[in-house]
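subagent[fold] <- orchestrator: predict structure for attached chain, return C-alpha cells only, no commentary.
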Amino acid sequence: MSISEWSTASAIRGTVAKGEASCVESARFFLDRVSKLNPSLNAILTITEERAMATATTLDKSKAKGKALPPLAGVPVVVKDNLCTKGQKTTCGSRMLADWTAPYDATVVERLEAAGALMVGKANMDEFAMGSSGETSAFGPALNPWNRKMVPGGSSSGSASAVSAGMATLALGSDTGGSVKQPAAFCGLVGLRPTYGRVSRYGLVAFASSLDQVGPLARNADDCALLFSAISGEDPRDSTCLKLPPESQRLEPLDVKKLRVGLLAEQIGKGVAPAVREGVLKAAAILENGGAMVSEVSLPHASYALAAYYVIAPAECSANLARYDGVRYGFSPGGPDSGERAEASRSAGFGEEVKRRILAGTFVLSAGYRDAFYNKALFARQAITRDFENAFKEVDILLGPATPGPAFPIGERSGDPMRMYLCDVFTIPPNLGGFPSLSFPCGFASDGLPVGAQISGRRLGEPLLLQTAKFIEERLCLLERHPS
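subagent[fold] -> orchestrator:
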C-alpha cells in the first residue's frame, strides 16, 4: 500500500482509484495510527471506527461494480466535536454534553461522507468553542505534535493536532474569533475561515450565531480547497447560508502579476515575535518578486476589534447557552424544582471560561448597559467592516500575521484571560465583517515551532486566498517538515 500518514488527499484518492490500496486499507491504516498516537496527544475524543469502516466498505463495493469514486474517496477526516454526528456523542468539549448523542448529522458531515471521506474521529476542542488553546476542554487539553509541552491552539485544538500528527489528512473546525486559523498557525497547517454563510451551520452547536462558521484544516492549499469544495454550497436548512453552488475543487494558477497586496505593517510591529514578522515579510517578498504590487495598508478601527468581539460573542453565547437547563438535555444533577435544577446543572456542567462569557454576555445585554456596551460594540463592528471594504477598493488581499507568536506552553496563560484573549487579536477583525481569511505556514521559530501568516479577501474571495497560499507554499518549501 502506497498510502502514508503524510499523503495528500488527492494522492490517497488517486491511490484508491488505481487500485493500489482500498478504502478499507486506508481506513485501517489511519485508525491504527489514531490508536497509536492519540493516547499521547488527546486530540480525538471519540474514535468512530465502525462508521469509518462502514463507509470504506461501501466505497470499495461501489468501485468493484465499476462506479466512479467521489472526490474524497478513502481520505481520513476528523470532525470537531461541536458538529452533530448521528448516533454518536457530540460533547462540545463540555461536561454539560458529555453523554449526549446527536440525533442527526450536520450538513457538513453529510457532505463529507457523500464525498467519500472516512470520518475516523470526533476532535477535542475548547469547551463550546470558547478558548484559544484547547485547555478549557472538560476532557483535558489536546497537545501540539510539534512539542507536547505546547498548546495546539484553540478552539479547534484536536482538529489541528490530529492533522498535524498525521492521524488524518483533513479536518473540520469551526471559527468564531479565530478557532480554525489560530490552531492552523500553531500546528503548521492551512486553515480557512470562509465567508460568513458560504458553508452551512446546520448541525453546528451554536456559540455566537452571527460569527460562527465551519472551516477546513489541511496540510496544504490544494487539500484545503478540496475539502472546502466538499462542504460549501447552499443549504435550505440554514437560513443564513448563501444560495450559491459549491466551490470548485481545483485551484487555477495565480496570476500574480495582477495581484495587489495590502501589507498590514502596523500588525508586525511591537509585540509580534521576530519569527512571525520575518515570515510575513518573506511571504510579501515572494509575492512582490513574482510581480505582485505590495503596498502598506492601514485598518484604522482594527484596534477596537478585540474589545468589540468580547462584547458581541459573549452576548450571543449567553442567549445560545440558555437552552442548557438540565431538563430537555444536558448534564442534570437533579433538584426539587426547575429553578434549582437549572442552577445546579449550569454550575456543575459548565467550565469556568464558559461561565465567564455567559456572565459577561448577560451583563452587556442587561437593562441600562445595552447602549453602553453592546450597541457600541455593534458600531465598532460596522466601522471595522467599512475599513475592510475601503481597503479592498485599493488591494485584492490583505496580508499580516495570524498570531502574535508561536504556540505557548500549556498552563502559561490559563490563569490570565486577557492575555489568552490577545492570541486572537489578528484573526478577529476579518471575522467581524464576515470576510474570508486564511492562515498558512510561513516559517519556524528558533525552537522549531511553526508560525503562520494570515491573508484576508473580499467576500466570496476564497479561491484567490487559496491560490495565493499555494503560490507562497510552493516557494517557501516548508511542507516537507513534519513533527517528530
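orchestrator: received. Logging for downstream: The chain is about 40% helix and 10% strand. The two ends are 22 Å apart (CA to CA).
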